[in-house]
Design goal:
Layout lengths: L1 E5 L14 E2 L2 E2 H16 L2 E5 L3 H9 L19 H16 L5 E6 L7 H13 L5 E7 L9 E3 L5 E3 L17 E11 L15 E5 L10 H12 L9
Parallel strand pairs: 1-4, 1-5, 6-10
Antiparallel strand pairs: 2-3, 5-9, 6-9, 7-8
């Protein structure tokens, strides 16, 4: 297995967020630490994808050194994550002279995960031989069958998903999930099929049994800092 950690230098929402200090450590350290822990269990390799020397230096202090640098065309706001992972995957396969059966991508900006989450999710995708990938989710707070609307072509608003029969409560609506962006497992052949995002006809999910969210805005960072600084989580991250 190859574990990938992708962290580019520019960030508009939270400047330098990948190495911004949170609860006494740079944000990327939480992802590197769990990558090392999970890699020991599976004898996996870890690869860092970055275009930024400072991020590379900080990562090296936490035991993740690399000679790889992300190509400039993959370090823009519009570059796709799948292409980014594929590039460092091909680099790593050449480096180690082997083809990896599974790839686990850990997102730096969504660190609220445990080794138990990763082990449990890996077992799910291994058992389904047809599955191409799996991504982590949480129960959604809004439901497109019940309390999410979108603008129609006539200018009026309607439910995003139109149920066959009226749904009178959120509890009776079909289950939907929020992607928390924390981790993604891929089988190697996913990258040979030229998918450009994580959604395929053969995708699975792992529902996290605890809180998990990614950091998009400064308030998200402040909220996560509060949770970590005050031991408000009911699980532990390193």
């Amino acid at each position: 297995m190859l574990i990938t950690i992708c962290a580019r230098g520019s960030s508009k929402g939270i400047p330098s967020k990948n190495i911004k200090t949170i609860a006494g450590k740079p944000l990327i350290a939480y992802t590197i630490n769990i990558a090392h822990e999970f890699a020991k269990i599976l004898d996996a390799s870890i690869a860092l994808s970055t275009d930024n020397d400072l991020i590379a230096d900080v990562s090296a202090k936490y035991g993740l050194k690399t000679d790889y640098r992300r190509p400039l065309e993959l370090a823009t706001d519009t570059a796709g994550k799948i292409d980014t992972i594929k590039d460092v995957l091909l680099f790593s396969e050449t480096l180690y002279n082997k083809k990896f059966e599974y790839i686990l991508d850990l997102d730096v900006t969504s660190p609220l995960r445990t080794v138990y989450d990763l082990i449990s999710a890996f077992e799910i995708i291994k058992k389904d031989k047809n599955a191409l990938n799996l991504f982590s989710v949480n129960k959604a707070h809004r439901n497109p069958y019940f309390n999410m609307v979108e603008k129609d072509i006539d200018g009026y608003y309607k439910l995003v998903k139109q149920p066959e029969k009226p749904i009178l409560s959120r509890q009776t609506a079909p289950k939907v999930y929020d992607l928390n962006a924390s981790f993604y497992f891929y089988r190697r052949n996913f990258f040979d099929l030229n998918y450009k995002n994580a959604y395929t006809p053969y995708s699975l999910v792992y529902e996290m049994p605890h809180s998990c969210f990614d950091l998009d805005e400064p308030i998200d960072f402040d909220f996560m800092s509060y949770l970590l600084d005050n031991n408000k989580l009911d699980f532990k991250i390193e």
